[in-house]
Each structure stands twice: as C-alpha cells, then as structure tokens.
Amino acid sequence: MVFMTTFVIPLLSILMMKLTKNIVSFHMENKDERVFPFSMISLFYMITTYLFYIKFQVDPALILALAVITISVILLTSITFFWKISAHMTGTAGLMAIIIAIALKNPAIDYLYLVLGSTILTGSIGSARLYLNAHTPAEVLIGFGLGFTVCFSAFYWML
Length: 159
Prior knowledge:
mainly alpha; globular
C-alpha cells in the first residue's frame, strides 16, 4: 500500500501532468513548474500517513517514518513556492538522518555499514545534482539541511 500511494499513484499523476502539458518536462527545472506536482505528492503522502495512523495497526516507527517524510515533503513544497531546492537531497538526507538517529539510539547494534552506505549515497546524489547542473550548491545544501533536520530531530527525540 505504501508503494502504491507514495510511488505508483504520484508517478501516474506526474505522467498525466506531462501528457496534459501541466509540466513541460519530467525534470521540472524551474520552481513554478514544481509547485503543482509537489502539492499533489504532498497530498498523497498526507493521505497515506493518515490511513496508516488511523486505520492500520502497524509499528509506531513506520508511522513516525511516514509522518516525517510527509512533513519533509510539505516543507519542501512550501519552500518551492519561493525557491527551488533539491528534493533528491531532502529525501536521501532524511534517510541518512533516520539511520544515524537509530544508530545513536541503539549503540549495541552495529550500524556502521548502513551509516557509511547512506552517507556515500547522499554524497553521490548531491554530487550528481551539481554535476548535472540541476541545482546550485545552495539548493543542494538547503535540501540536505531540510531532510536531515526534520528526520533526525523526529527520530532522535521521538523514537
């Protein structure tokens, strides 16, 4: 269900936006073109989080993960009204932050390879965004800061 509501349905929505010419390309290079798709994705994440919180009995850590991802996407969308930041960095920095927070909260378990892997992944994606001229260094840095701050704070203090 998470895969359907947070990947398949948003992907189909973006395809429809492209076919109906609401977006020029899948790259969404300017901030104005990103507002509508990001708003739709925010809505899908809110619905998913709501359904899992209210309707399903699942691990609270999953609910927390969905909630912080939803908050990150909503903040990303809000910032997009004024400035383009890296959604890729927001997502990967959020993943890295969750792994680091869990590792700090559970020192008895060795999370070294997960922390290193997520750090390499985040650095690689940030470098790729810069290399492709998809973002400026400031846009990558702010995207990283948003994802890391929201996810680390929530997982470190609430888990």
